[in-house]
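Notes from hallway chat w/ T.B., transcribed later so I don't forget. T.B. wanted the structure written out for a chain they're using in a teaching module, and asked if we could keep both sequence and structure tokens in one place. Agreed to drop them here.
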Amino acid sequence: MEHQFLNEDEVAGYLNLSLEDIRQRVKCREIPFAARGKRIVFDKGEIDAWASRRILNLPEKNLADYHQKSTRNTSAFLTQLAILPAMIQPGFVAPAMSAKTKASALRELVALADATGRLNDPQALLESLEERESLCSTGMPGGFALPHPRRHEAHMFQASFLVVGRSLQAIHFGAPDGRPATVFFLICCQDDRLHLHTLARLCFMAQKTSLLAKIEAAPDASAIFDSFLAAETDAITPL
């Protein structure tokens, strides 16, 4: 895949950070970058992976601030505050996943993604998910996980979408709190900006709404779907 590089101003805007913050992170080598003579450049693929890890690890207040900035900045290409209605349908929900391991959960989620009709290459998606997990687990405190591809290539998907799975058995996914996961949100975005915004939106929803508890208690896929959209409405109402 051809590499795309960003300059300091571009990466600051892309990550919703100040230019001074970017320069300080470069100075401390806290962000991936390369020197091209006197210029500092950033490989977009590496930045996307770094930004995904950063969002997953943001504390509550920082996540709220990032989500607000992300919502404001994506308004340039999104017509609605609510992003999930265009990305998920009741048929994109699996309320009784049979997986018992992390590997089998990823395979089952990819099969669900393939059934949506929006996935072009199931094997490429699975390999990218496994590559992403090898860098750092997408398991989150609280019993859920946010698996997503290592890189976001538009040709992999017909359109951006999400699938949601609830497993019958708790699966150890590598969350920082050691708690196994039973709820999985597989994020499949054609656009890197939409991916980061979706990741922040889902993390924010998990922290600020009763989404996870409602998914656990939902009797079927339709109820999970309804809970999902209702939780997004709750999350964006103050914005």
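Follow-up for T.B.: The chain has a mean pLDDT of 93. Might be a good example for the class.
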